[in-house]
Model the fold of this input.
Amino acid sequence: MYTWFLVAAIASPSGISDELKVDSGYEAALVVPATGVQIYECAEKDGKFGWQFKGPEATLYDDKRSGVIGKHYGGPTWEASDGSKVKGALKARQDAPAGNIPWLLLTTTTEGAGRFAGVAFIQRVNTSGGIAPKSSCDKAMSGKVERVDYKADYYLYRKK
Done:
């Protein structure tokens, strides 16, 4: 005896600009909420001191936020608990509501078989927090690191 399950399609996120839309040959396969930090370092760039983005550190959850499915870290890389990985490269960005890091569209490369295999695009949307510190950054503070809390939803797309 066979049991059949209907799986509802994942709707693309709302409120995104045309630049963040994924080609019609792809569909959202996973929604991966994340909670963590955006890491900034006080450093000199082009003769001026400021908070420079170093990378993220976040925990990835299933779509109901009921279980941990992996981690997100510099690269940027999303790594599932099964060892499969996705590495992203920025394709487009959209300003988020004030006080929140931008929404992004990234092209990807994948490693390993598993949950994240075959992912071609990632959208980072519904961001909360994560912007560079507002505190001063000068020569005396050079090398100081700040970890800023953030949340986001990552939509992972595969070919249809």
